[in-house]
Amino acid sequence: MRGVQTDEPVTILTVAKEAGVSKTTASDALRGSGRVSEATRAAVAQVAERLGYVPNGSARHLRRASTGTIGLHVPEVLTRSSYYMSFVFGVVEQAARHDYDVTLITSGQRRPRPPRVDGLVLGDPLGGDPVVESLMATGLPTVSCERFPGDRQADGVVWSEHAEMLARLLGHLRSAGAARPALIVAGDESDWAASLHRGYLGWCADQGVVPLVRRVSFDATGDEIRAAARDLLRSEPLDALVCAPAGAATEVAPLLREAGGDVLLASCVDSAATRLADPPITAIDLRPREAGASCAELLFELLAGAARAGTERVHPIELAVRASTSR
């Protein structure tokens, strides 16, 4: 094989000549298409890597009549949370692996036309959100993180067993000596919040415990969350408090210290704030970066025809037990 001058641009033709195959064979080998043997694919890939060949993404997307972009929508409130940032990074990283860009679409953007994207990822879509409704009506391939609590459903869904994980958390609280755990949770416009509420009520029914619930808005402020916690502390005796909204547990922790009671505290959303709190707060790790990557990957499988509409995948989540739930 001939040597390649270092000042020459490395093209698909360069790779083909160096590998001793035709330009079409080299292109098919690198794209994973066509009738090319595995040995030839491996040989061409090795040459491409050695030469530092970078495919022309724009040309490839043009050949496929593709925009080279996917859209990502999240509720406006999530743009202020660390969960959102991690979720977005997961989507962006997975898109980059497929040589795609990501366009962020927020609920404040009302569009007269469909976005110029190949498909959509919807992060925790809220029922009644007109932007989500319009996006799902475009006919573009769509994947949602959690189910959409509306008439339509996305072509693919990545969801987690939130009710089961909450039951595990409540069981941990009971083992730690808590007999009356209370819950602060958002309304049912989010499938995630609705699952937590159902899971809590189901656990209470199974254990013969009277439910203690305060509902807050999905975009609840710190004042609203603290007011809900104060109302619970005044109205009923409780020995554990589970906060569903992101950031809520760190908002109410000072109130529990001021009250002077021995109330265990846990969060349904893990974050740096819960890990660094004093004491560190027990939390459910939703693994948002991995969730974003899973949603993007399912969308690319739908676009490639490797997955069918109606595909659902379970995203595993974890419980991180910390000092806030020990006596």
TrEMBL record:
| CDD domains for the chain | HTH_LacI, PBP1_LacI_sugar_binding-like
Quote the protein name from its UniProt record. LacI family transcriptional regulator
One molecular function GO term is:
transcription cis-regulatory region binding
Species of origin reads Nonomuraea diastatica
Q: Which InterPro entries match?
A: HTH_LacI (IPR000843), LacI/GalR-like_sensor (IPR046335), Lambda_DNA-bd_dom_sf (IPR010982), Peripla_BP_I (IPR028082)
Q: What domain of life does the native source organism fall in?
A: Bacteria
Residue limits of the HTH lacI-type domain? 10-64
Gene3D superfamilies hit by this protein: 3.40.50.2300, lambda repressor-like DNA-binding domains
